Amino acid sequence: MSAARMEELWPWLALAGLGFYHGVNPTMGWLFAVALGLHRRSFRAVLLSLVPIALGHATAIALVLGAALALGLVVDPVIVGRVAAVLLIGWAVWHVVRGHRQRPRVGMQTGLVGLAVWSCFVATDMAPDSC
Questions:
Q1: Whole-structure pTM value
Q2: 3-state secondary structure (DSSP) of residue 131
Q3: What pLDDT shows up at residue 98?
Q4: Which of 8-12, 32-36, 46-50, 126-130 shows the lowest mean pLDDT across its residues?
Q5: DSSP label of 1
Q6: Is the pLDDT of residue 86 over 90?
Q7: Which helix or strand (DSSP H or E) is residue 28 part of?
Q8: Could you tell me the sign of the dihedral formed by the alpha carbons of 26, 32, 37, 38, in that order?
């Protein structure tokens, strides 16, 4: 395969890899959808629970995008990038040092509204250390 062809194909391979990761990672929502379906003993509940997961995810994207655009209008983007980098590194250090020692605060049984809220929190990475 030529280098030019591979350069065209690489973004699609990366996107497929991210999609695969998104699908197999249990914190992405499918595990909660299955748990809700098992709890209610209904395949319909599994399919129905995908709607609030998608809505929560879309809400999180809209919130983060809106905040980033608003912040970018009043603050220099270089400063925003540096502050974001410091916050992300600090968040990672917190999880390495302390983040996974706390007991989960929520269980697997929730309703559709709780599933949408959970999805929004996880997609923005604002969730408590239960995820």
A1: 0.58
A2: coil
A3: 78
A4: 126-130
A5: -
A6: yes
A7: none
A8: positive
Q: Which two tokens stand for residue 105?
A: 């605060």
> Minimal CA–CA distance to 112: which of 60, 58, 55?
55
For the chain, give the longest Cα–Cα distance.
Answer: 53
Cα(121)–Cα(29) distance, rounded to whole angstroms? 12
| Residue 14 CB coordination number (10 Å) | 10
* Residue linked to tokens 């030019």: 4
For all residues of the chain together, what is the average pLDDT? 78
80: nearest Cα among 67, 90, 93: 67
Q: For 8-131, where are the E strands, in sequence order?
A: none
Amino acid identity of residue 37, one-letter, is G
Q: Which two tokens stand for residue 1?
A: 């395969």
Tokens of 124: 């923005």
Give the residue among 22, 49, 37 at the shortest CA–CA distance from 115: 49
